[in-house]
Amino acid sequence: MSATCLVVMGVSGSGKSTVAELLADRLGWPFTEGDELHPAANIAKMSAGIPLTDADREPWLRIIRDRISAAASQGRSTVVTCSALRRAYRDILREADARVRFVHLDGSRELIGERLAHRGGHFMPPSLLDSQFAALEPLGPGEDGLVVNVADTPADIADQVLAFLEH
Ligand SMILES: Nc1ncnc2c1ncn2[C@@H]1O[C@H](COP(=O)(O)OP(=O)(O)O)[C@@H](O)[C@H]1O
Ligand SMILES: O=C(O)[C@H](O)[C@@H](O)[C@H](O)[C@H](O)COP(=O)(O)O
């Protein structure tokens, strides 16, 4: 298995799309936006301010897992955004036939809430941020991943991730 998938994870507004686009650019790897793979019912729920359940997320995570495998089967490494809040969700992604590695964009409720409040044109309402933090299980023992601080600039975070990928 030679292909890697770098999953950029974290709560809504932590900077997944921003950082993943930068990394995909610097690595020359294709970028998949996990939010675009949500079933329509999930988007409707989040837009209505209702947090997703494990059952809502499961089919979505399987779609992302299969995308990772499909790219890897063609020898392509990828960068993927996915909140991947719980370890059980990451276990589904790790079923992909690739080396799946995580970068957790970690930051305070205050800082991320402030950024979300200023982000426009997105279906995810800031009111769901507390439920995102409640669901979040940080990377634990045995998980292949890096934790970075979202107070750093996207460019600094990208540098840290590129160094992590060397190993
Ligand atoms: N490291 C950072 N420093 C400052 N602002 C950031 C950083 N990362 C993201 N942002 C800003 O925060 C907001 C949320 O980022 P976004 O990439 O949409 O997060 P996510 O994809 O995790 O929901 C955006 O307005 C983005 O420009
Ligand atoms: O598992 C979930 O509850 C969702 O995936 C959620 O975590 C994600 O944040 C949304 O898809 C909104 O997208 P943004 O993360 O870009 O706000």
UniProtKB/TrEMBL annotation:
What does the record give as the reaction this protein catalyses?
D-gluconate + ATP = 6-phospho-D-gluconate + ADP + H(+)
Q: What are the UniProt keywords, alphabetically? A: ATP-binding, Gluconate utilization, Kinase, Nucleotide-binding, Transferase
Give one Pfam family.
AAA_33
User: What is a single molecular function from GO for this protein?
Assistant: gluconokinase activity
Q: Quick one: which pathway?
A: Carbohydrate acid metabolism
One cellular component term (GO) for this entry is:
cytoplasm
CDD domains in the cross-refs: GntK
Its Enzyme Commission number? Answer: 2.7.1.12
> What family does the entry list?
Belongs to the gluconokinase GntK/GntV family.
NCBIfam families (alphabetical):
therm_gnt_kin
Which protein are we looking at? Gluconokinase
